[in-house]
Amino acid sequence: MSDEVTRQTEALASAIVNSEEYQTLQKYEEQLKEKPDLRRKIDHFRDKTYRFQQQEGIDPYEEVDKLDQEFVQLRSDTLANAYLEAELAFCRMMQNIQEALVKNLDIAIPDEV
């Protein structure tokens, strides 16, 4: 990697670490360390959501209903809700960064793999 690309990569990483989105997410990560049961519930929900998105051949309506009920339960906890909101904001920022990088590159990247 060229020196310029390395410098710019480091600058981007620093900007991300100093962003409000990252700082907010880290704040809630620290608070969740004090509540390991809640952390496990959040991680379990995220894992189930990811697995659902990757599966084929299941009844999506039934599964979505189950996930929705679990989501509502998690959101009723103030810390879990704040964490999930912060995580979403951070993920959106990272998606925007990725899209900005890709749109300026002249390489073939398939929409779906």
For the record, what CATH class applies?
A: Mainly Alpha
Average pLDDT: 90
* Estimated share of beta-strand residues: under 5%
Helix percentage range = over 70%
CATH architecture: Up-down Bundle
Radius of gyration over all CA atoms, rounded = 18 Å
Euclidean distance between termini CA atoms: 27 Å
Question: Low-confidence parts lasting 5 or more residues at pLDDT below 50?
Answer: none
Key words describing this protein structure:
YlbF family regulator; single chain; 113 residues; Com_YlbF; mainly alpha; 5 helices; YheA/YmcA-like_dom_sf
Structural write-up:
The structure is a single chain. This protein is mostly helical. The chain has one domain (3-97): Up-down Bundle (YheA-like fold). The chain is 80% helix and 0% strand. The chain is built from five helices and no strands. Helix 3 runs antiparallel to helix 4. The radius of gyration is 18 Å and the shape is flat. 4% of the residues are buried. The model has no long low-confidence stretch (mean pLDDT 90). Pfam families: Com_YlbF. This is YlbF family regulator.
Report a brief summary of the structure:
Helices cover 80% and strands 0% of the residues.
Topology readout:
Layout (H helix, E strand, L loop, with lengths): L2 H15 L2 H14 L2 H19 L5 H16 L2 H26 L10
